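hey so i finally got around to running the thing on that chain from the lab meeting. sorry it took forever, my laptop kept dying and i had to restart like 3 times. anyway pasting the input first so we r on the same page abt which one it is
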Amino acid sequence: MTKRRHRAGMTPVDGQGLALGDVGGTHVLLRPDRLSYMKDGRESASAAWHDVRSIELDIPTTGWRVPAVGDVVMPLLSGVFVSIIDPPEVRPFYVTVRVPGVEHEWEVGSHHVVGYSRRSADLMKRTVEYLHRTAAARAMLREPEHILERLPSS
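ok and heres what got predicted. didnt touch it at all, straight out
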C-alpha cells in the first residue's frame, strides 16, 4: 500500500485514482472513467468523464507560503486571544461539474484551515483541466502517484 501523502491538495488513493481534498472527509475522486463525489467513504454522486462539459474548482487560498504553518499558528492565536479572535474553521472548497442538463456542486473537505497556497490551488486546477481535456492522460489515474511525481516542486 502506498503511503498517502498529499501534494497540492491531491492525494493518491491506491487502485482507485487521485483524490481532490481530504480523503478522510468529503472529496472528489478522479478515476480513469469518472469523477466520484465521496462522502463517508462511499460514492454519493458521479459523472463520466466523457459526459463532463466543464469542471470548475473554487479553492480558498492563503497568503501563507506554507499553509501548514498557518494551520498551527491560527489555532494557537485564537487560544491565546480567545475573546478577540474566533477559532478558525476549515474552509471547504467547491468542485462544480457540468454534464448535459445537470450542474453538480460538490463541497470538498480541505487539508488546511487557512486555505491552500496559490501555487497549490493553481496546480490542482491545471491538473484537473488537463485530465478533462486529455482522455489518454486519465489512464495515469490507475497509478496516481505518477501524476504527483510529474508536478513541479515548490
